What does this fold into?
Amino acid sequence: MTSAAERKMQFLYTLRSKGVTDSRTMTAMEKIDRGAFVRGLFAKRAYEDMPLPIACGQTISQPSVVGLMTQALNVQPRDKVLEVGTGSGYQAAVLSQLARRVYTVDRFSRLVREAQEVFDTLGIVNITAFAADGSHGLPDQAPFDRIIVTAAAEDPPGPLLAQLRVGGIMVVPVGQSDTVQSLIKVTRLEKGFDYEELRSVRFVPLLEGIGQE
Ligand code: SAH
It folds into this structure.
């Protein structure tokens, strides 16, 4: 039987061995207990480096992918961040440790409600979560310093590119669903955008409209 402390050591060791080397990202992931975001049958696997099922047929991302995306975003303490795809709320919670404020949206209101319950339990107060189709972004709150999309789009969505501040960074998995997708880092320049391909990933698809359970 492994103790909670051993499990945590192993969790952090795996992150490091998969390339999560940024110390601020590691500190945030050390603080936020992934176990709080996985319910039911799969709760006991929360510290394994794999995606797990959550409600509404969605998944909580693999911890090492959360770490690599967080580190690629290079969030600064004053930043306003938008996450599209709240899911369990785990990624938003990790980002909340690094940013001034995190806006997170999901097309399933149940997921948003359950994520909010966990944020409240953990005492996280700088996340604003609501149900919306995030492919349009959040025009009222734009521009954002950082945008993270945790569902795969065929192309980086135009409205999200438009809501990124000059100098801002967006991380988004791009490609057809059910195949291997590429994780892309987009940096907004004074004129145009710079695109960098980071690695291959696999995410559930970014879908239009509000989800019906
Ligand atoms: N970041 C999550 C994992 C997200 S799974 C976590 O840390 O657990 C992808 C999520 O994107 C799903 O919950 C899905 O409902 C949501 N999603 C897909 N298309 C969307 C859209 N257009 N707008 C908002 N959320 C969307």
